[in-house]
Amino acid sequence: MTGLASMFRADRASGSSGRVGAVGLILLAGLTALALFPEQLAPYDPSELVGRPLEPPSAEFLLGTNDIGQDLLSELIAGARVSLTTALIVAAVSLVVGVLVGVVSGYVRGIVQEALLRLIDLTLVVPFLPLVILLSAYLGPGQRNVILVLSLVLWAAPARFIRSRVLSLAAAPYVEAAVALGADPVRIMLKHIWPGVRTLALVQFILVASTSILAEASLSFLGLGDPSTKSWGTMLFFARASGAFLSEAWRWWVLPTGIMITLSVLCLVLLGYGLEKRFEPGLQR
């Protein structure tokens, strides 16, 4: 994160892209602090019954309490760890698969390329939300199943973008020279193709993480997550189950949770936008 900060400081003179990326980085740093130090930042144990049910916000409970008397601010802080960790794991797995499929399908010709292209198309052609709901319902609720389902679906978009970049790199003179000299295809992909897609892979990692936060919250809200974990999605699930959406409790239970989800997605999108503009000179205009 320090390296990203120095990069955006150096890029600030280039225009709005550096400022946008810096805003995203600042927001991400705040969310990361919540995820890393929830015990130190939360006023109460999020699993402890500390007040009366559905107490409105007060000096003692800044965001009030839920239907069983747990402090909602502590739950919100603890939920940052689960939601962000899930998003990072999904983004990492999806990126590894996406890079492998994108590089191989963009450079290798023949039946391997055709098979990988059909797999990408098949994954992308099915509507995202119905697909993940169907897979989650089949596998059953649980945080591991949520990570598995999202990883099975979200790898295809990075693979498609990376493959497009690989196709242009494969026609570069230095790659053609390496082929003419008899270099091994694996060596070409590692030494000549991969350096050209690293920055694009970083941007895709950030964008997949932002999508994962929304998807995990949606699945948990529908009851397909792990209700025993404290995530932003499970907070919305219990708010719906207890009728908070139909009472005044939505103001201190649902609204802050929605704001945190929105901020986390926003900071990642801004960071990805800043990185993309930084590393893609053609987008500066």
Write the layout of secondary structure elements.
Blueprint (H helix, E strand, L loop, with lengths): L1 H10 L4 H21 L1 H4 L30 H36 L3 H15 L2 H12 L3 H12 L1 H15 L2 H8 L4 H37 L10 H10 L12 H26 L6
Question: What keyword list fits this structure?
Answer:
285 residues; mainly alpha; elongated
Task: Walk me through the structure.
The chain has 285 residues and is mostly helical. It is 72% helix and 0% strand. It has twelve helices and no strands. It has helices spanning 2-11, 16-36, 38-41, 72-107, 111-125, 128-139, 143-154, 156-170, 173-180, 185-221, 232-241, 254-279. Helix 8 runs antiparallel to helix 10. The chain is elongated, with a radius of gyration of 22 Å.
SSE order in H/E notation? Answer: HHHHHHHHHHHH
**Main sheet: strands, sense, barrel:** none
Count the beta strands: 0
Overall 3D geometry?
A: elongated
- Give the integer mean of the pLDDT values: 86
Strand content of the residues, in percent? under 5%
The span between the termini is: 27 Å
Low-confidence stretches: none
Helical residues, percent:
over 70%
Class per helix and strand makeup: mainly alpha
**What is the radius of gyration?**
22 Å
- State the helix count: 12
Question: Could you give a quick summary of the protein structure above?
Answer:
With 285 residues, the chain is mostly helical. The chain is built from twelve helices and no strands.
